[in-house]
Design goal:
There is one protein chain. The chain has one domain: 3-Layer(aba) Sandwich (Rossmann fold), CATH 3.40.50.1820. The strands form 2 sheets. It has an 8-stranded mixed β-sheet, with helices on both faces. The chain has a two-stranded antiparallel sheet with strand order 1-6. Helices cover 35% and strands 16% of the residues. It contains 10 helices and 10 strands. By secondary structure, the chain is an alpha/beta fold.
Length: 300
Amino acid sequence: MKALRTPESRFEALPGYDFDPNYVEIDGLRMHYVDEGPRDGRIVLLLHGEPSWSYLYRHMIPPLRDAGLRVVAPDLIGFGKSDKPEQKSDYSFAGHVAWMREFIEVLDLQHITLFCQDWGSLIGLRVAAENEQRFARIALGNGGLPTGDREMPTAFKVWQKFAKFSPWFPIGKLIQKATVTGLSNDVVAAYDAPFPSAKYKAGARAFPQLVPTTPDDPASDANRAAWEIFRRWEKPFLTTFSNRDPITRGGEKAWQESVPGAANREHVKIRNAGHFLQEDRGAELAEILVEFIDAPAVPD
């Protein structure tokens, strides 16, 4: 497949994002990731969603690193500093899962604490279910693992149509619309940085169409199989949903009720935060993750 690479000059002097770049080749594509903290520290894997990139985690990476954790935050293929296949047909749910699985295997990440949101959760939860031995615990915020067996919220349907048909697809402004915090112009520009022109946005355009919305979706069976694994998942599982996300609000209940590792745990409701809770309440969320990692595996 033919892929584009965003010029490095687009990423110069981004506010709050001064992390050293790291790269690995995945399936012939260059994948970027942030890797901060001690090499022998407990690993936290932060997976972003649509249409953001690892810049979303700039408020969380320093406090997690300063707590002695090794923080790994990749840019999904098609986003951030990672290569961007040009055609929407180059992207699939299974393909993203395979890319992330290979990324974890190449870095040989073990005993992972996963935090995932939006499409980071669709990918991350699948990878965790299919590679249980590499994961120690999961924290899920504003995300899920749809199978197409339930009706999707109206807000998602509107977003899906917008991504498919709108000639205007301003990444930074879309992030702003999904946050409670008012973003400065330079932060909005930082979210736009990976996408110099429309031809770089195929991955961002494709993602909403890849969410399973019918029972016979190509990803439905694999997602159902992952749900069966989570219904037996005894490892710690925490939900950290926000209160002002029209798409995922209330979605935490299914996880709290279905996952054994979520039982008897003090789940968190992030107040005054929108869909991108990492942008609105990143420092608070980092503190919650540190406490979660340090907590006993089985709550009292």
